[in-house]
Design brief:
- This is Transcriptional regulator, LysR family.
- It comes from Calderihabitans maritimus.
- Keywords: DNA-binding, Transcription, Transcription regulation.
- It holds the Pfam family HTH_1.
- The protein folds into three domains: 84 residues, Arc Repressor Mutant, subunit A (Orthogonal Bundle); 99 residues, D-Maltodextrin-Binding Protein, domain 2 (3-Layer(aba) Sandwich); 108 residues, D-Maltodextrin-Binding Protein, domain 2.
- Helix content is 44%, strand content 23%.
- By secondary structure, it is of the alpha/beta class.
- Strands 3, 4, 5, 6, 9, 10 and 11 form a seven-stranded mixed β-sheet that branches. Strands 1-2 form a two-stranded antiparallel ribbon.
- Helix 8 links the parallel strand 7 and strand 8.
- 35% of the residues are buried.
Length: 303
């Protein structure tokens, strides 16, 4: 049990809806359901009942709700006092984020964090995975959020915390031949015009490692362009210029709009992890520690 779970529980009870609480807290409904389930298992009691009008608290749920509200109020009072002591109201937090996270995951998380701590100024610097890792090591940013491998030659004292897992998929235009395609083979992938991400990209490295495990080099693909802009890549794919790869979460909006499709490589499933980074021996400001607690797996939400 943690305070995030209690806060989520109270919002569900107040709104009488899992979906409304999910929308308000910028997380998915399955994530809400999972956290409530974990809370019910922790207390050994059912906390909600479903009705035609929504969900209502059980007798056990009402007890948990009353005490949870008090705990959260006391915790908020404590944080306000700490803000006064540490001067957090004037604080700034600089975060480095790789392109997928910076453009698709972090915006929603930032909105949620700033709704909770409106006095904090957040600054986000976006780059590829290797660049962000380097910025964290050189202390140009206090925290980093990246996808893919976090290993750099000679790096020391870098703390890495896994916060999510995603799937690397091939992105194709939602028209013509591709509109009915459900998967692509490695042989087919090698023949198609292909746009690759720049060196230092976590997605590119994930693809290179997966291909090497099959005895294939990236140079054996029909690479027609190398691009660092995900939006530029998506525009080129949508126009039918070539195909490419991306984390599935990076193209969710495009899939919903019907402009792109995401298909797996038949013999080559590729997973990629998302990490939170900071230096072990660096003093972290209170606001940075709060953000680390806030960006837990159950709260990371893609826009």
């Amino acid at each position: 049990m943690n305070l995030n779970q209690l806060e989520l529980f109270c919002e569900v009870a107040r709104l009488k809806s899992f979906s409304k609480a999910a929308k308000l807290l910028h997380i998915t409904q399955p994530a809400v359901s999972l956290q409530i389930q974990n809370l019910e298992e922790y207390y050994g009691a059912k906390l909600f009942e479903r009705t035609a009008q929504g969900v209502i608290l059980t007798s056990a749920g009402r007890v948990v709700y009353e005490y949870a509200r008090r705990l959260l109020e006391i915790h908020q009072q404590m944080e306000r006092e700490l803000d006064r002591v540490f001067g957090v109201e004037k604080d700034e937090l600089v975060i480095g984020a790789s392109s997928i996270i910076g453009n698709h995951a972090l915006p929603c998380s930032i909105w949620a964090f700033q709704e909770k701590y409106p006095q904090v100024k957040l600054k986000v610097e976006v780059g590829n995975t290797k660049l962000i890792i380097q910025k964290v090591i050189e202390q140009q940013v206090e925290l980093g959020l990246v996808e893919g491998s976090t290993e750099l030659p000679g790096q020391k004292g870098l703390v890495t915390k896994k916060i999510a897992t995603d799937e690397v998929v091939v992105i194709v235009p939602n028209k013509g031949f591709w509109a009915q395609k459900e998967e692509i083979t490695i042989k087919e992938l090698m023949k198609e015009r292909f746009i690759v991400r720049e060196k230092g990209s976590g997605v590119r490295e994930a693809l290179e490692r997966a291909l090497e495990n099959q005895g294939i080099k990236l140079s054996e693909l029909n690479v027609v362009s190398e691009m660092s802009s995900l939006e530029g890549i998506k525009a080129a794919v949508e126009a039918g210029f070539a195909i490419s790869i991306c984390c599935r979460q990076g193209v969710q909006k495009d899939i919903r709009r019907g402009t792109l499709r995401a298909i797996p490589i038949k013999e080559l499933p590729i997973q990629i992890d998302y990490y939170l980074l900071y230096m072990k021996n660096k003093f972290l400001k209170p606001v940075a520690k709060r953000f680390i607690r806030f960006i837990a797996p159950e709260t990371l939400e893609f826009c």
